[in-house]
# Entry
Amino acid sequence: MGITFKKCPNCDLTNPETSMQCKCGYDFSSGRITESSPQREYASVLTRLGAISIDGLILLPFYIPIFVTVSMVENNALPPEEQIVPSIILLVFLLGSVIFALWNSIIRMGKTGQSLGRKFLNIAVLDENGQPIGTGRAFLREVVGRWFSSLICYIGYLNAFWDARKQMWHDKMANCFVYYVDDNFS
# Structure
């Protein structure tokens, strides 16, 4: 009879079935990362800016057809009776960009802690236990919180420069932190 193993849901490390805790600090009985887990490093403001920039660049395939279509319609490149096709194209790409952005920044990030840009730069938005924040808190952070952070001359974003935990106002609003993570995270 051989030893059986179980995979850690936090870091994917294989552990003996009898293990109570993974090396990453994940407690198998409670399903949480324990206090003895390694301290994570807070992500720098520049790394966070880079992740947001990458997330914006990913939307370029949606934006280019939108700009071309709007330009065609504004410049009367087509007779009015033929403008229905560009209008449909515009609507499809607008809806596609909104759906993709919501999926990337709210659903994906809420479930995994990482948008595509954050994944590329190995950072994650996590709660105080090192877990993803969920879609509800991701919505609060990304929609309501970002608006609030930009309300007064973007001071909510600048807050990360003097905050000990490098939190911006939208992070504080959703009670989350942005950490550097390993390549194999999520």
Notes: The beta strands are 5-7, 14-16, 26-27, 32-33, 123-126, 177-180. The chain is about 50% helix and 10% strand. The chain has a mean pLDDT of 88. The two ends are 33 Å apart (CA to CA).
